[in-house]
Design a protein that fits this description.
Number of domains: 1
Largest sheet: 2 strands, antiparallel
Strand order of the largest sheet: 1-2
Number of strands: 4
Subcellular location: Cell inner membrane
Distance between the termini: 100 Å
Main location: membrane
Order of helices and strands: HEEHEEH
Protein name: Heme exporter protein D
Mean pLDDT: 78
Membrane topology: Single-pass membrane protein
Keywords: Cell inner membrane, Cell membrane, Cytochrome c-type biogenesis, Membrane, Transmembrane, Transmembrane helix, Transport
Length: 97
């Protein structure tokens, strides 16, 4: 039991020294920038999963923005067509009376 507590304390005392300041503002928990890009921690790289998640998120957000833009444009065109039709119907009805 005592042996595991000593190891626990060593890990956390070493981990407290790891964060460096990134541009003097944010704690940086990686040993180097390449480790950050690889998302490497204790020899295990999570880069594929992390960057894939970021890429999919941003692609979906961009897709949503584009879809919303075209959907808005289509709605405006349909509304203009409906208003023009109503105007033509109103003019036709006024001509009939």
């Amino acid at each position: 039991m005592m042996h595991s507590l000593v190891e626990f304390a060593l890990v956390f005392s070493a981990a407290a020294e790891i964060p460096q300041k990134l541009f003097g503002l944010f704690p940086f928990y990686f040993a180097s920038f390449s480790d950050f890009l690889q998302m490497a921690s204790n020899g295990v790289s999570y880069a594929f999963y992390v960057w894939l998640a970021y890429a999919l998120t941003y692609l979906l957000l961009i897709g949503l923005i584009i879809w919303s833009y075209f959907n808005h444009r289509q709605f405006k065109q349909q509304l203009e067509a409906k208003l023009a039709r109503e105007q033509r119907v109103k003019q036709y009805q006024e001509q009939q009376t």
